[in-house]
From TrEMBL:
Residue ranges occupied by any Helicase C-terminal domain in the UniProt entry: 228-428
Organism taxonomic ancestry: Eukaryota, Metazoa, Ecdysozoa, Arthropoda, Hexapoda
Composition skew (Basic and acidic residues), residue ranges: 322-331
Biased composition (Basic residues): 332-342, 554-563
Domain DEAD-box RNA helicase Q, first and last residues per copy: 7-35
Protein name as annotated: RNA helicase
Similarity comment: Belongs to the DEAD box helicase family. DDX56/DBP9 subfamily.
């Protein structure tokens, strides 16, 4: 589409209050999906949209929903729930509600939106629903709870249904709920399905939800172009992965906020406790955490309280075996894993809007191409720069080859995953420290870290307050029951002495305390190395925007010798 033909927001016949909100958000023009979908939805068409996360798809359906409600308010004073937006997880529901909040900032009194995805508090939600908010955002199961209890009625007045992340709706097992839910809707309403993939499941949902829909399969690349998003890989085995990560972070070669993906929930804690020993703070995100804690983690990360979030691979939640096992075995495994009370309404690597992520680090390589794409999609959002750095062990090499092949298809056969130069032997001191720190995080320490979180949750749980009042000894025991195998933060490990630095980086600024960014990091200026400084600056100027600086110590030494 050429620039002359681009339809701008103000050309879409949108209400002034929406246009003002969009301008307040600082969105200069619609994204491709918005430019295409908004006019179609305003015309009243049903739409099936395939759009990658980060494409702006939330506003693509939210803007027409709000416009339609404002139109209805001009003709009818009758208050009712006009739009139902379904999404598979509480985090995604929260995010959609927040986007709607931003878009209705200038018409908040006219268009009210509530999110009823949280479990529990059904009575409060019932009271809010009795006021008939204009837009209800929910997971399918929560919507059904309230429909069955007659806390909300949609049969007469609903005019729009949106199903977001439709492919996940199926993998999260909401199929039956969706079907039952449809029986509570009126005969005629406008519907939108948004999905990252157009799987068979989505196409079958399309048949039951949409009428004569327009299907938008926009020719958008699944990931940002290479000028914006760089992919690197680095071969490393288990012990070395930890040492390299420590060195990268301490040498300040990773700039900005990072999401570090690991394979399992235990490894989330292992890595967090490992980094903690060097006073590198991080928060943890995985599906076993209660929703409130997960939302808090994402929020703290977005607000800059933490620079690093360690996330377990949620692909394993969708397909516990990574798609290798036959279906029957998969179901068996799924049942087993559900014993661990994973929350099916959580999806870390899909859809959640982690803001301003500069780096995605695959500490463990993703189990398949899709998972790589979803993880990589967490960075380089909008027009921002981003990088993906994957640590690859020998066992993970075939997975990387598959990703390389897939990505290079999209880039006309060009090699996409570049080698990240890192001379581990130059940072032997880091390796030495790292080995001890990694071993200090025993399985018992990991288990206790997880238990600590559960205990905290029990102590905070409102529902248990009554029980604790009647059984104060249990409360006291829970409070007393301290973890025995905590991993101590060793102050001296937080500091990187000059002799540990590779020669090439001795004139770099080293961040000594990365615990938070709200507390101003103490940056210690190292001595300038006049010989090397200019060559290095020159090298970095070429990649000024790349949040991941390369660390090619050997090459730098050569260059230094030449200057
Ligand atoms: P989504 O794909 O809906 O999750 O949106 C991804 C990100 O893009 C969000 O952080 C939005 O705030 C942002 N965004 C949405 N529409 C636009 C736009 N027209 N211009 C710039 N940023 C946008």
């Amino acid at each position: 589409m050429t620039d002359e033909k681009k339809v701008m927001f103000h050309e879409m016949e949108l209400d002034d209050r929406i246009l003002k909100a969009i301008s307040q958000l600082g969105w200069p023009e619609p994204t491709l999906i918005q430019e295409t979908a908004i006019p179609l939805l305003l015309e009243g068409k049903d739409v099936l949209m395939r759009a990658r996360t980060g494409s702006g798809k939330t506003a693509a359906f939210a803007v027409p929903v709000i416009q339609k409600i404002l139109n209805l308010k001009n003709t009818s004073k009758h208050q009712s729930i006009r739009a139902l937006i379904l999404s598979p997880s509480k985090e995604l529901c929260g995010q959609i509600t927040s986007v709607i909040g931003d878009l209705t900032i200038k018409c908040a009194r006219e268009v009210r939106c509530i999110d009823i995805s949280a479990n529990g508090d059904t009575q409060t939600q019932k009271a809010i629903l009795s006021d008939k908010p204009d837009i209800v955002v929910a997971t399918p199961s929560r919507a059904l709870v309230h429909l069955k209890a007659n806390n909300m009625r949609l049969k007469e007045d609903l005019s729009m249904l949106v199903v977001d992340e439709a492919d996940l709706i199926f993998s999260f097992g909401y199929e039956d709920e969706i079907k039952e839910l449809l029986s509570h809707l009126p005969k005629i309403y406008q519907a939108v399905l948004a999905s990252a993939t157009l799987s068979d499941d989505v196409l079958s949902l399309k048949k039951i939800v949409l009428r004569n829909p327009v299907t938008l399969k926009l020719e958008e690349p699944e990931l940002a172009p290479s000028s914006q998003l760089q992919h690197y890989h680095l071969f490393a085995e288990e012990d070395d992965k930890a040492a390299i990560l420590y060195a990268l972070l301490k040498l300040n070669l990773v700039r900005g906020k990072s999401i570090i993906f690991v394979r399992t929930v235990d490894r989330c804690y292992k890595l967090k406790l490992y980094l903690e020993q060097f006073k590198i703070g991080s928060c943890v995100l995985n599906s076993e955490l209660p929703a409130a804690v997960r939302c808090l983690s994402v929020d703290q990360f977005n607000r800059g309280r933490y620079q690093i979030i360690v996330a377990s691979d949620e692909k394993a939640l969708e397909k516990p075996d990574g798609g290798i096992l036959p279906i029957e075995e998969r179901t068996k495994k799924k049942k087993q894993s559900s014993k661990r009370k994973k929350d099916k309404e959580s999806g870390v690597s899909r859809g959640i809007d982690f803001q301003h992520v500069s780096n995605v680090i695959n500490f463990d390589f993703p189990l398949d191409v899709n998972s790589y794409v979803h993880r990589a999609g967490r960075t380089a959002r909008g027009n921002n720069q981003g990088s993906v750095l994957s640590f690859v062990s020998i066992r993970e090499k075939p997975l990387m080859d598959a990703v390389e092949q897939h990505l290079s298809n999209g880039f006309k056969g060009q090699k996409v995953l570049q080698k990240y130069e890192f001379a581990l032997e130059e940072v032997e001191g880091f390796r030495y420290r790292s080995r001890d720190a990694w071993r200090a995080v025993t399985r018992i320490a990991v288990r206790e870290a997880r238990l600590k979180e559960i205990k905290q949750e029990l102590l905070n749980c409102k529902k248990l307050q009554g029980y604790f009042e009647e059984n104060p000894s249990d409360l006291a025991a829970l409070r007393r029951d301290k973890a025995l195998h905590t991993v101590k933060v060793q102050q001296h490990l937080a500091h990187v002495p000059e002799y540990l630095l590779p020669a090439a980086l001795r004139n770099e600024d080293i961040v000594e305390d990365q615990e938070t960014v709200t507390e101003k990091p103490q940056v210690k200026k190292r001595k300038q190395n006049a010989n090397f400084g200019s060559a290095k600056r020159h090298k970095y100027q070429a990649r000024q925007n790349d949040p991941l600086k390369s660390f090619d110590v050997k090459k730098k030494k050569q260059t230094a010798g030449e200057t």
